[in-house]
Amino acid sequence: MADLDAINQELGNDPVALIRWALEQGQRPIVTTNFRPFEAVILHMVTRHQPSIPVVWMDHGYNTEATYRFADALVQRLDLNLITYLPKRTRAHREAVEGPMPSIDDRRHEAFTREVKLEPFERALREMAPDVWFTALRAEDTPERARMAPLSKNADGLLKVSPLLGWSAKDMYQYLQLHDLPNEFDYFDPTKVEEKRECGLHLQH
Known about the structure:
With 205 residues, the chain is of the alpha/beta class. 42% of the residues lie in helices and 12% in strands. A six-stranded mixed beta sheet has the order 3-2-1-4-6-5, with helices on both faces. The radius of gyration is 17 Å and the shape is globular. The relative contact order is 0.21. The mean pLDDT is 91.
């Protein structure tokens, strides 16, 4: 494996070149999505180079109706190889037993986040055993992401690739316009609630 610091320096500001390079590094790449605003950018960019790449969605069950419609439309538009991972309990089952989604200051929220997002993602990693993972992380999303590098490796050797890390919302919007791609802003993440809050997935992996 090449020196990641050197590749970050050389290709970190060139998303397409970074994607091409990363796809040559492994045999089992995946791209994760949550169908939040601007997700069409990463999905379009990566599938142009590898149309059959598995697109992994951890559907926590609390998405808005607009997000579900957007997901279906984007899957059809880009012919995505979508693989959905769900929590082991349905939302209806969980709420019947435990009540509505806990707020972020509720002591149950950590367990809720683990159940609806972290456990399904860890199950996806075990079952799919990817060696390259593309994400749509951007530095302006949260303070934690501003400290990340476009390329990194986790403790298990998984190469994490964030080609759009340095892009602004304006850059994303312009890409959507250039390629006539759809967008959707009616989005809600129950594990974050607040826009600048981390759910923990990208801090643990």
